[in-house]
Amino acid sequence: MAGGKMSARQKMINLMYLVFIAMLAMQMSKEVLSAFGFMNEKLEANNFSTTEKNNQAYANLETKASEQVAKFGELNRQAIQVKSLSDNFYSYLENLKSKMTADLEDAKDYESMDKTLFLDTYFFKGDGYTKEGQEFLDIINNYRTKINETLGNNNQFSSVLNDRFNTNTLIDSDGVKVPWLKYRYEGFPLVASLTNLTQMQADIRNTESDVVTNLLGGKLEEALSLNNYTGIVRLNKSAYFSGEKVTGEVVLGRYDASLVPDKVVLNGKDATDAVKNGQVILDMPTGNVGEKTIKGTIFFRENGEEVPVPFESKYSVIAEPSSAVVSADKMNVVYRGLDNPISVSLPGVAASNLSVSASGGKLTKSGAGYVIRPGSGNIATINVSAKLSSGKSVNSKATFRIKDIPAAMGSVRNQYGTVRMPKSGLANAPINAGLPDFEFDLKIKVQSFKIKVPGELTIIVNGTKLSAAAKKVLSKARRGDIINIYDIKATYGNGTPFKKVLPVNIELTN
User: Fold this and answer.
1) Of 419, 423, 420, which is closest to residue 475 (Cα–Cα)?
2) Quick check: is 168 in a domain?
3) Does 133 lie in the same domain as 237?
4) Which domain holds residue 174?
5) 3 in a domain, yes or no?
6) Domain tally for the chain?
């Protein structure tokens, strides 16, 4: 611009223009340097505030760990390890920053921090790194690795840690791969590198904050999760007379095996030794017949203060039973070929403590009761025995008659015997079979039947509805004719055939 065939005046103007541009660039450079310095100050102030908050969180976790070792002890151990790793890394960076500004008369004269010499010689040696440069990289990588190991390699912070403290090779604007240390620190003004290190300190404190908040918050969320609650029925009393109203309430209760009380008082006596897995295990004599009360207080320590949690419940003591109560769920008859449900109970004795057997059939457990499938005889007997808490044995039995399943009956439109209906209705109605007033639902299926129209040949039908041939014969019937449906073949259950199915007759109304 100042060369070529120009007049002296033009050359002077061009030269002044270049000087003006250089002055503007210099002024902008100073503003940028100052901006980095102000950003560094704000980051340092924020780091101080975050450090104070983190220390409070560490102290809170330590207090909880001293009060509830089972619940917070392991979390506190992790937090201590995270704090130690973080403080060491943070101190290393603080010491490095002190070295960078040691020769400056004014540590806040950011406009003078435009040189790149310190880190260019401290970190780099030719195309490689100095001992200090490699140490810097190793400390960053070690911090990331150790935090992940402390929290578990599959922890939820793994991706955040890998992103915040990533030292992988980067690609510059020209698409060239550049080692991370050179990309971030080589050739940068001193104040920019200083701010970069302060930002890394902020990442350390933020990582601590995230981890400790999650350790405490995770336990709180776990404690409050509805998965840890169960519905508890609290009746006003544990025994009622016939005709009384059952009164009480259903509440949510939280079970936490790691929450161990400091002291338990049960019925006026110390029962702290009875605590197992966060529960007070009851083991005491019932006392005489009548209503009894269980009451006491569980003491916990929270934030250094003792918190009492009172409890109270009632139960009734009844006289020992002398015989079992056995009843058939349907009637005093059991049917051959069917699984007949049987209920067995003994007042005051848990079902799990009953010994139940049968003769005259096969007895199996089914849910809260039993089923018996009778054999070939005429009598089935249920035998019950139990040993009471007093040591007394109780034996009882109940006898049932064994009967065959009665003959099924053919039906149309759920009607049996002789059914009056129009010819068109019969043509489209399915032929079914059933056992009126029988207590069991056998799920009966009709396989085939025969239909006889007066004056016509008998037609065999497979299935439940009239075939084309049967409809053709039916079309010849007249009003008042009796159509006979007989020789019905049907099955029940898993395909067991009925020995006999009674016929059904249809009187045509048109």
Assistant:
1) 423
2) yes
3) no
4) 14-224
5) no
6) 4
Q: Which residues contact 43 (CB under 8 A, 6 or more apart)?
A: 195, 198, 199, 201, 202
| Rounded Cα distance, 399 and 381, in Å | 4
- pLDDT at residue 13 greater than cutoff 60: no
Residue 449's pLDDT band (boundaries 50, 70, 90)? very high
**HSE value, Cβ hemisphere, 13 Å, CA-based, for 506:** 29
Radius of gyration of the chain (CA): 45
Residues 117 and 138 reside in one and the same domain: yes
The 8 Å CB, 24+ separation contacts for 22-26 are none
Question: Phi and psi of 389, rounded to 5°?
Answer: -60, -25
Question: First and final CA of the chain: distance in angstroms?
Answer: 120
Instruction: Give me the sign of the Cα torsion angle 22, 26, 32, 33.
Output: positive
- Tokens for 284, please give them: 């005491």
Both 304 and 353 in one domain: the answer is no
Q: How many CB atoms lie within 10 A of CB 449?
A: 25
User: What is the per-residue pLDDT for 304?
Assistant: 61
Last residue of a domain, which of 301, 317, 333? 317
Q: Where a domain ends, among 257, 286, 317?
A: 317
Q: Is the pTM of this model over 0.70?
A: no
Let me know: does 144 contact 114? Beta carbons within 8 Å: no
CA distances from 140 to 174, 175, 207 (A): 27, 25, 13
Give dist(CA 453, CA 473) in Å, integer: 7
Q: Which two tokens stand for residue 459?
A: 């037609």
